[in-house]
Amino acid sequence: MGWDFSTDPQWAAQLAWVDDFVRSECEPVDLLVKESHDLNDPVRQALIPPLQRIVKERGLWATHLGPHLGGPGYGQLKLALLNEILGRSECAPIVFGSQAPDSGNSEILAQYGTPELKERYLEPLLDNRIVSCFSMTEPQGGADPKVFTTAAVQDGDSWIINGEKWFSSFASMASFLIVMAVTDPEAPPYERHSMFVVPGGTPGINVLRDVGLGYQPLGGGGREGYVRYENVRVPADHMLGPRGGAFVVAQTRLGGGRIHHAMRTVGLVRRIFDMLCERAVSRHTQGQMLGDKQLVQEMIADSWMEIEAFRLLTLQTAWKIDQHNDYQAVRADISAVKAMMQKVLHDVSARALQLHGSLGTTHEMPFVQHLVESFVLGLADGPTEVHKTVLARLLLKKYKPAADLFPSEHLLRLRDAAEQKFAKQLAGIARS
Ligand SMILES: Cc1cc2nc3c(=O)[nH]c(=O)nc-3n(C[C@H](O)[C@H](O)[C@H](O)COP(=O)(O)OP(=O)(O)OC[C@H]3O[C@@H](n4cnc5c(N)ncnc54)[C@H](O)[C@@H]3O)c2cc1C
């Protein structure tokens, strides 16, 4: 029976190198580069490509790629442990060639793109010479694709796309966008949409504005494109996958991505936990260290238990993916991990903010950003509520209704069954 929580020594040595590299090289860069995806920012270009070269030389570039894309095929458990370290730093994923949404978009292109599209976009994307965008959510709703109205109409050898998309991250700087559009309005809801590659700069792509998150200043720093597609014409061979197959294509990008995200969250939350504990042993009030107060001790204990439980569930899910090699078989586990992610980051950063007092609320500490990020985790790739619903439905599928009015574990029923089972042995024994 295998039941082993140790990491193989060779991988452990790689992880030790990554840990040191991320702390000493990537974390300082986070403080100087405004947007690690922005290839036109000279500060970014001065600091990130040299780190990328070191990662490539070390053989750790784009390790999420399967062997079909020239990747090492490490499996999800090893990648989970790697991503845990990358989660400490905002720019580490791009330094290691595994940043969203490019990682998922490259999977889609590799699986569904024509040889010409792959040549034009896949290689430079894998090399981080270009940036891409995934354009699916619409202003009137994201969690329910049935409300999407952006449509593509065939015109000879082309498709013409019209509609609006919301939160198309990096739309302004993307060399290509993967756009979901209704092509078959009369088909069943999940067969109505097709997926298209839209080259950046195609006439009719209008980025109305780049929306920023709550901690960013109004009118600057945003990267969530509010995009209007107006008579955007793309050649017919820019459709990815079969007509009406957009949802199947979209699934391609989720794969191990959610597990990588979860482990990055573990790495980030552990960093926040360290800040929480440092504060608890640094600050004194009413003649006592904060960490000597029982309510503060509860914060520390709860945080540690939540982080470790989340980490173990995520690692176990990664291990199960490697065992089954089938994401459907671990759908429930993946939804559980996805739903927990938001709560762990939220609760631990809220406690860290609280213990840092007024300083915790400022832009001189990262907690406000982390709190907003916890909500981002609870929205992108499906809201927490939807994942909890999926999990519950899958769990309930394994259960049957009780045979009659009383539960199958009703103690009277169980005792009667036990009496019958041991009737021979108990015959003649006096019982009170
Ligand atoms: C930082 C960030 C980056 C993003 N990047 C992209 C991107 O690159 N491309 C892209 O296409 N999209 C992107 N998104 C959009 C994301 O996918 C959507 O936010 C998400 O699908 C939810 O859609 P919505 O925001 O319209 O919320 P709505 O669909 O309006 O839902 C609002 C809330 O309603 C509740 N809710 C929804 N459905 C249910 C349900 N079934 N049961 C119970 N409650 C429910 C949840 O609380 C949910 O948060 C990004 C989002 C964020 C925050």
From TrEMBL:
Gene3D superfamilies: Acyl-CoA dehydrogenase/oxidase, N-terminal domain, Butyryl-CoA Dehydrogenase, subunit A, domain 2, Butyryl-CoA Dehydrogenase, subunit A, domain 3. Homodimer. One of its GO terms (cellular component) is cytoplasm. GO terms for molecular function: acyl-CoA dehydrogenase activity; flavin adenine dinucleotide binding. Belongs to the acyl-CoA dehydrogenase family. Residues 247-395 form the Acyl-CoA dehydrogenase/oxidase C-terminal domain. InterPro entries: Acyl-CoA_dehydrogenase, Acyl-CoA_Oxase/DH_mid-dom, Acyl-CoA_Oxase/DH_mid-dom_sf, AcylCo_DH-like_C, AcylCo_DH/oxidase_C, AcylCoA_DH/ox_N, AcylCoA_DH/ox_N_sf, AcylCoA_DH/oxidase_NM_dom_sf. This is Acyl-CoA dehydrogenase. It comes from Mycobacterium asiaticum. Residues 17-127 form the Acyl-CoA dehydrogenase/oxidase N-terminal domain. Residues 133-216 form the Acyl-CoA oxidase/dehydrogenase middle domain. Keywords: FAD, Flavoprotein, Oxidoreductase. It catalyses: a 2,3-saturated acyl-CoA + A = a 2,3-dehydroacyl-CoA + AH2. Transmembrane segments: none annotated.
